[in-house]
Specification:
The structure is a homodimer. Chain A contains 3 helices and 4 strands. Chain A is of the alpha+beta class. In chain A, about 30% of the residues are buried. The interface of A and B includes residues 46, 48 and 93 of A. Strand 4 of chain A pairs antiparallel with strand 2 (about 40-45) of chain B.
Chain lengths: ~100, ~100
Amino acid sequence: MPGTLLAVHVHAHVKPDAIDAFIAATRTNAAASLNEAGVVRFDVLQEVEDPTRFVLVEVYRNPAAAAAHKQTSHYVTWRDAVTAMMAEPRDSVKHVTIFPEDDDY
Amino acid sequence: MPGTLLAVHVHAHVKPDAIDAFIAATRTNAAASLNEAGVVRFDVLQEVEDPTRFVLVEVYRNPAAAAAHKQTSHYVTWRDAVTAMMAEPRDSVKHVTIFPEDDDY
C-alpha cells in the first residue's frame, strides 16, 4: 500500500547571478519549514550539471500541511524574495510515497 | 557551504500495465539498497497526476557509493526486471545537497 504522506518536488531555475542569493533565501525558508508540525522533510538540492537548477524536496504529513505551509510568514517572505531571481516559472510535482513506510520518513 | 552527499533523482516512466510490477520490484530494490553502507536514502515516489511516472530519490554518501550501488545484485536484478516495463528510457539527475547539513540526512 502507498503511504499517506505527500511529497512535492519544486523545480526552480534561477538566473545565474542570483544563485547565491537564492541559496541563502531558500536555506532560511527550509530551516523554518522544518519547524512546522506537518513538514517531514524539506531538502534543497542543486543540479551538478546546471547549478542554476534546484529542486526543493518537500514531504508533508498530508495535503492540509502543504496548504498550511503556504500560509506561513517564512514561505511568503521566501516567495517574495525569490520572485525576481527566477529564470522561468517554478514547476511543482506532487507524489504519493511508495517507499519507505510513513514511519520511516 | 554545500554538503558532500550526492543526491540522484531517477525519473521512470512505466507502461500502464506494468505499474504494479514496477512498484513491487522497486520496493524490493529500495529496501535492499538501504542496507548498503553508502546509501543514506532510497525513497520511491509516484506522481499524483500521472501514476505511470515515478521518481527514485537516492542519496549517497559520495560518488563512489553511487557507483557501488550499481554493482550490487539487487540493483542488477531490478534493472533487468524493469527493462521491459519502461515506456521510455529513464532519466537520472545528480545534485549536491544544499540543505540540510550532511549529519541531518
